[in-house]
Design a protein that fits this description.
By secondary structure, the chain is mostly beta strands. 0% of the residues lie in helices and 54% in strands. The chain contains no helices and 23 strands. Strands 1-5-8-11-14-17-20-23 form an eight-stranded parallel sheet, with no helix packed on it. Strands 2, 3, 6, 9, 12, 15, 18 and 21 form an eight-stranded parallel sheet that branches.
Length: 209
C-alpha cells in the first residue's frame, strides 16, 4: 500500500444534514490525505456542507480512484481552488462508478473539482457536476479543471449542468486534450464563461474520438 493511503470499503459520511452545519479546514473541508484515496467494493463516500480555504470537500496529494463505488459531494465551498475537492495526482473511475458533485463553488479555479493529473472515466461510469461555479472574474473551469487530459471511455458519461467560470471554460477547462472513446458521452448544458469556452476550454489537441 502507498504511504498515507486511504482505502474505503464501506460507507463513509462526513458532514451534517442542515445547511448551517459546516466543517471548516485550511485544505480539504472533509479530510486531507497525503496519499492515494481509493473508494472500492461498492462503497460510498459522502461529504456535505463543508468548506475550506482550498478543496472544499476533501484533498488528496496523490490520486482518487473509484472502483464500482460512489462519491457524493454536496454544498461545498473553497475560497481558493477546488470547490468540491482536489485530486492532485488525477482521478480514475472504473467499473460502473459514480461521482456526483452538486452545489460547489471555488473562489479561484475548478468549481466542481481541481486536478493536476489526468481524469479518466471508464467502464460505464458516470461523472456528474451540477450548480458549480468558479471565480466570477478570473476563474477557470466552472464544472472542473484538469491540467492534463480528460478521457471518457467504454460507454461512460460526463454530465455538466449549470456551471460558470469568470474567465475560461464555463463547463470545464482541460490543460491537455479531451478524448471520447467507445460509445461514451460528454454533455454540457447551461454553461457560461466570462471570456471564451463557454462549454469547454481545451489547451491541448482538442476533442478526439
Amino acid at each position: 500500500r502507498d504511504a498515507g493511503r486511504i482505502d474505503l470499503r464501506d460507507t463513509v459520511q462526513i458532514g451534517g444534514n442542515r445547511p448551517h452545519q459546516f466543517i471548516q479546514r485550511q485544505e480539504g473541508g472533509g479530510f486531507f490525505a497525503a496519499g492515494k484515496v481509493v473508494v472500492n467494493e461498492m462503497s460510498r463516500l459522502s461529504i456535505s456542507n463543508s468548506q475550506a480555504s482550498f478543496c472544499g470537500g476533501f484533498s488528496t496529494d496523490k490520486s482518487l480512484q473509484v472502483i464500482h463505488s460512489s462519491v457524493v459531494i454536496e454544498n461545498v465551498t473553497a475560497h481558493g481552488y477546488g470547490g468540491g475537492f482536489c485530486s492532485y495526482g488525477g482521478m480514475e473511475m472504473l467499473e460502473m462508478s459514480n461521482v456526483s458533485i452538486d452545489t460547489a463553488k471555488a473562489g479561484q479555479d475548478g468549481g466542481g473539482f481541481f486536478s493536476n493529473g489526468e481524469v479518466v472515466v471508464a467502464g460505464m461510469s458516470t461523472l456528474s457536476v451540477a450548480n458549480s461555479h468558479a471565480a466570477a472574474t478570473t476563474g477557470l473551469g466552472g464544472g472542473f479543471v484538469t491540467e492534463k487530459n480528460l478521457q471518457v471511455t467504454n460507454s461512460s458519461t460526463v454530465q455538466i449542468c449549470n456551471a460558470t467560470a469568470g474567465q475560461l471554460g464555463g463547463g470545464l477547462w482541460v490543460g491537455g486534450k479531451v478524448e471520447l472513446l467507445g460509445m461514451s458521452n460528454l454533455s454540457i448544458e447551461t454553461a457560461k464563461a466570462g471570456q471564451t469556452g463557454g462549454g469547454i476550454a481545451a489547451q491541448g489537441e482538442g476533442c478526439g474520438q
